[in-house]
Amino acid sequence: MSARTKTSKRSGPVGAAYAALVARGALTADPAQHEAAALLDTVLVGLLADKPKGMLGKLFDKSAPVRGLYLHGEVGRGKTMLMDLFFAAAPISGKRRVHFHEFMDEIHAGMAAFRKSAKGKDADPVEAVVKPIVKSGLRLLCLDEMHVHDITNAMLLSRLFEKLFAGGVTLVATSNVAPEGLYKDGLNRQLFLPFIALLREHLTVAELPAAQDYRRMKFAGQHVYAFGTGAAVRAEMDRLWLRITGGEPGEPGRVQSTGRSIAVPLAALGAARFGFADLCEKPLGSRDFVRIANQFDSIIIDDVPQMDRTMSNAAKRFILLIDSLYDRGVKLGASFAVPLEQLGKDDKTAFEFQRTVSRLIEMQSEDYLAQGLREAVSAPS
What we know:
The chain has a 6-stranded mixed sheet, with helices on both faces. It has a 5-stranded parallel sheet with strand order 2-3-4-1-5. Strands 11-13 form a two-stranded parallel sheet. It is 45% helix and 18% strand. Helix 2 (31-49) runs parallel beside helix 4 and helix 5 (100-116) packs across helix 6. The protein folds into 2 domains: 13-207, Rossmann fold, CATH 3.40.50; 214-370, Rossmann fold (3-Layer(aba) Sandwich). By secondary structure, the chain is of the alpha/beta class. It is globular, with a radius of gyration of 22 Å. The chain contains 15 helices and 13 strands.
């Protein structure tokens, strides 16, 4: 790794959680991942030592936040898994984890709303969106998959994070590229360079050069679809689930989407497992499915039925779901009651379903399964 840290023989919470996964056989020991866990433990030590000072203390104390971490490396190297362990181990209430894309969407929406307000004519909209974030007591912000291609974000980031850091927020971020690779060759990039300097001032920058793409290994040589119903099909999906989670049974979780909290029946090591009804027979839409696709690299869906005219709404949601997973490059395992070409029996969705079936066929191919995740996509407004 490009950043080194002195570690004691006794691991911190992240290192201990990582070692436990290795001991159970869920992960293969990787020295680079072990070192990254130690760096994350260093951030935790700082957060625990930096006691909240109360509202008055925050108003008058201008000390810097705890030094954070920027962890970068190619897809499938374990960055998300390590962030999972770190976030779960951080014993503070003022913490939040969100994809970079989604966080920036929220910032832009907040700024737009402020500009339309009575106060928005003269005041600073960046200050207006940061102030409630800091007042909420946020001490730790974890951003998955930081990448910058949009000039609007590029011109905003330096001012935004200057104010967040000044408010005592510690940042831990993952990315596929080093800070210097952000907004590479972008328009007016010289105006973006202060943000890179700001990251290096407030964060330790470390590369994760893990030996293998562990995400792709999960699906190598696997049959990801099962057809029919009953115990045998369920058992086949159970085997696939344990394969992609390294034997971890998983536990319930939640995905936070705008205005709602979506239940996840099982989640483990970047994978999630749902029943068809959990996703397509509830009032979910494109924004929710994008959130799910951005949060997990692998998803299993059990009990996908044949969709006739009595299931038009569910069929429409299934089409949106598959589009979101496909656009992101999420790996899909699923059990279907009937062969793919017989899934859509609703004339109202017949045309759209042709594309869905085509995508489902591609998503079980070796080529698709060998690809890394694609860039996180913004949720529709």
